[in-house]
Amino acid sequence: MTSLFWVLTAAVVYVYAGYPLLLALMRLLGLARPVASAPIEPSLTLIVSAFNEQDVIAEKITNSLALDYPKDRLQIIVVSDASDDRTDAIVAGFASAGVELLRMAERGGKTLGLNAAVARARGELVVFSDANAMYRRDALRMLARNFADPAVGAAVGESTYTDAEVESERSEGLYWRYETSIKRLESAIGSVVGGDGAIYAIRRSLYVPMRADALSDFVNPLQIVAAGHRCVYEPAALSYERAGDDFQKEFRRKVRIVNRGWRATLGFKRLLNPLRYGLFAFELFSHKLLRWLVPVMLVALLPVTAAIAPRAPLYALALLAQLGFYLLAFGGHALRRRASMPAVLSVPYFFCLVNIASLLGILDAMRGKTYTTWTTARAK
User: Fold this and answer.
1) What is the C-alpha separation between 90 and 96, in angstroms, rounded?
2) The model's pTM
């Protein structure tokens, strides 16, 4: 039992601390792969995904039209997933500025909309964005410069959150900053594991149409890496949006993401072969697969620790630490509807929320339950 305790503890510590430290060590040891970037201006198509976005779509289009990129090289497509509010009418109002509306005949989810939009794209590069993601003026140039390197097939920008107003936003922002640091390290030595639906670019020639239930900003970069190209991180390409404004809303979103990400990883399990994909296999295994399995480890660790607690003060202390952490998380749950919550409660609560969501997402996938963005879940 003591051996199992140490194995589980080491695995959890590795996922959250050991993995990023190992990436940093690899970079220090000279394993970094610089990107041969240059200020290029290839033709580019910006695809904005929208479903019932009447509150933000005008701001998004205005933001897109103001971007610092040659107008004769920029195509803007807004793909509407059969929106039933004023989204389509607002987009149509920008037709004279060259903005194209692609309305799907019926709701099929974000991914099917992207398939249709890419088929209509004319740009050598395609940038994917969400309606609530506002770009810094030079974002497209910052993304495009990475494609001067022929090895680069995709470039992921940096999503940042505006000033948080409620605790769920602050917790999500903290979590996102941690994820951002890992992306920087992954990109430095190879490829980022996954994209960001708010801001990432690809070579249009590398796009492969995906199933409706595919998590597009995860599957698409995996396709590109599997084809032998790099997916790099570009921190200077900035996108601004608000984090989730409700813990429960974020919880449901993360269940869907893990469900779709888990199935995508199993569909690309060949990428876990280090003999063929080298460091990327290590990254995918550590950053995604092991991370999603942390809740299983935590569920096993508590009773194991309880069983060996009488054997030594160290194990008793470890049990008290776990129980105390979960007690703080429960306190955070009790105060989840408040706009303000001390970090000592919000961080444990958000940590537990994310891991419970991972567990439920995997269980849903094992039961054959699938999700598509903007549409309801269904069982196979």
Assistant:
1) 12
2) 0.89
Which residues are CB-contacts of 259 (< 8 A; sequence separation ≥ 6)? Answer: 361, 362, 364, 365, 369, 370, 371
Token couple for 231: 């997916």
The secondary structure of residue 164, as a DSSP letter, is: P
Name the region of 196 (left: φ>0; alpha: ψ -120 to 50; beta: rest). beta
Residues recorded for the chain: 380
Instruction: Determine the Cα–Cα distance for residues 210 and 231; give it in Å rounded to an integer.
Output: 18
Q: What is the pLDDT, as a whole number, of residue 131? A: 96
End-to-end CA distance of the chain: 39
For 203, the token pair is 């070579």
| Residue tagged 């952490």 (tokens) | 325
Residues of the chain with pLDDT under 50: 376-380
Note whether 50 and 78 are within 8 A (CB). yes
Residue whose tokens read 């469900």: 259
Cβ-based burial of 190 (10 A; exposed 0-12, middle 13-18, buried ≥19): buried
User: Closest Cα partner for 207 from 264, 126, 268?
Assistant: 126
Indicate the burial class of 366 (C-beta count within 10 angstroms; 0-12, 13-18, 19 or more): exposed
The two tokens of residue 334 are: 């009790």
Q: Give pLDDT, residue 377.
A: 46
Strand partners, 4: none
Q: Give the contacts of 76 (CB within 8 A, at least 6 positions apart).
A: 45, 46, 48, 61, 64, 65, 98, 99, 100
Tokens describing residue 260: 């779709």
Position of tokens 């008290």? 320
The answer for residues whose C-beta is within 8 angstroms of residue 215's C-beta and 6 or more apart is 111, 257, 260, 261, 264
How many other CB atoms are there within 10 angstroms of residue 250's CB atom? 21
Q: What is the DSSP letter of 162?
A: P
Report d(CA 272, CA 287) in Å as an integer: 12
- Contact assessment for residue 60 and residue 199, using Cβ atoms and an 8 Å cutoff: no
Nearest to 110 by CA among 141, 150, 79, 89: 79
